[in-house]
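Here is one chain, start to finish.
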Amino acid sequence: MKPIFLTSQNFRTGVNVLLLLGVSLTSFAADANAVPFVLCGSSCGTASYFVGYNRTNSAQLNTTTSTLPTQPDRIYRQVADLRKREKLPNLDEQNVDFEKGAYVSSLHRIEANRVGFVRKSELMRINTSKLPANIKASVRLVWGDTLTVTSSTLPVGTPVNLAIQRLMGGFGAPATNYAHYNVQSQTLVNQVPLDALRYLLDKKPGATTYREVGQAQAKTVISVKVGDTLKLESLTLVQDGVVSSSTHQTLNGADSVEHRVEVLTTGANLRSASGVFPRKLLSTNELSRTPKNR
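Its structure:
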C-alpha cells in the first residue's frame, strides 16, 4: 500500500502540514524536552501537556451563505481537559431559511476534548430539493502529554515495552446518500507518526461505499527505556457535510477517539505530566462491546 498523507489544516495561515503515515518507528530521544510538541507549534512553549482545537462551519442555500468566521487555533497550555476553560458541548450553529419551507441547518458540537479522549458530533439538514444547497464543517482536535518511564527496581536504561491503544467510535444515522465525511486520526511519539495507529475513513457525496484505511480498534507496542521521557500527541481531523439532491438530505453523526497507554514490562512504571496515563488497555471482550465508527 502506498503511504497515505494526513493533512492537518492550520486555519490561521492556510498552510497544510503533511504528516507521513507509514513511517517505521525505530528510536526516540531519551529527553523529550529536546523534542517540542508538533501539533501546537510555537503555541505550546514549554508546556508539558495541552489540548486544542479549531473548526469551520458553513451553510449555503441558493446564493445565501451563513459561515462561522475564521478563528485562530485555540491551544490551552497546561490544561488536560477543555472543560477547565470552556463550557461543553462547544456549539456552533449556521442556518439559512427561505420562504415555503426551504432551509439548511448545520449544528456542530465539540463534546469532549481532553488528553486521551476527544468527541465531536453534528446534525446537518438540507430541506429542499429545488434550490442548490451545501453544508460543510470541519474540526481539528489535538492534545499532547509528556510521559516518563520510571522504576524503583530496574536500572536506568533497561528496555521497557509500552503499549498504546487507539479506539475510534461514533455513528452516522441517519446519513442520507449525499452526506459525505472524512475522518482521520494520527498518533505521534516524539514527532514520529505511529503507523499501526493511523486511521482514515472517507465517503464521497453520492457514493454508496466508503474507503477505510487502518483499523478502528488498533494497538501497537513500542520499545523505550527506564528514564526515557516521551512526547505523546494525538490529531483528530474530521471534515463532513451534505449537498443537495432530488430529496432532502441529512447527516446525524458523531466521532470519538480514545487512547490508552499501559506498561507491559514488570517492574517499570509510567508517569504522565497531565496525570491521565497510564490507562489499562481494553481487553478483547471489552472491545467487542465498543461501538464501531460511523
